[in-house]
TrEMBL record:
Stored PANTHER family: SERINE/THREONINE PROTEIN PHOSPHATASE, SERINE_THREONINE-PROTEIN PHOSPHATASE
Species lineage: Eukaryota, Sar, Alveolata, Perkinsozoa, Perkinsea
Short name of one Pfam family: Metallophos
Gene name for this UniProt entry: SDS21
Residues annotated as domain Serine/threonine specific protein phosphatases: 1-140
GO CC, any one term: cytoplasm
Matching InterPro entries: Calcineurin-like_PHP (IPR004843), Metallo-depent_PP-like (IPR029052), PP1_catalytic_subunit (IPR050341), Ser/Thr-sp_prot-phosphatase (IPR006186)
Organism: Perkinsus olseni
UniProt protein name: Serine/threonine protein phosphatase Sds21
Highest rank taxon of the organism: Eukaryota
Leader sequence segment: none
GO molecular function, one term: protein serine/threonine phosphatase activity
Length: 143
């Protein structure tokens, strides 16, 4: 569901949750688990950041929430992290920052499903926690 790097970078599949009141809440999730329709596990797998949103809002996906930059800021302050790393959404350049570079979306599949003209990206993290990105350009195969 999530991982941390040097207690400073929080990695998650999708996003944050209003039910994430402590890190032990994640550790206490009984596994294996079916993904519920709501709650902490659902949100970690389905929530999305949304520019222009303040707090929590309904998600167009029909499940979980969208959240604003203020939610990211509050999360980082509460848990003493520097960055949230997530995936879950196609982004045109392979990676995309949100909330004044406090959150980054990384999507590693270029030309996703043959439907998108997106690049993919990989993020490397050095020992000093400096992050860098390698782009994976889409290649269109000629028939």
């Amino acid at each position: 569901l999530s991982a941390t790097i040097d207690e400073k970078i929080f990695c998650v599949h999708a996003g944050l949750s209003p039910d994430l009141t402590s890190m032990s809440a994640i550790n206490n999730v009984k596994r294996p688990i079916e993904v519920p329709e709501e709650g902490l596990v659902c949100d970690l797998l389905w929530s999305d950041p949304e520019p222009g949103v303040t707090g929590w809002a309904e998600n167009d996906r029909g499940v979980s929430y969208t959240f604003g930059a203020d939610v990211v800021q509050d999360f980082l302050e509460k848990f003493d992290y520097d960055l949230v790393v997530r995936a879950h959404q196609v982004v045109e350049d392979g990676y995309e920052f949100f909330a004044q570079r406090q959150m980054v979306t990384i999507f590693s599949a270029p030309h996703y499903c043959g439907e998108f003209d997106n690049a993919g990206a990989m993020m490397s993290i050095r020992d000093d926690l400096m992050c860098s990105f390698q782009l994976l350009k889409p290649s269109i195969k000629k028939k």
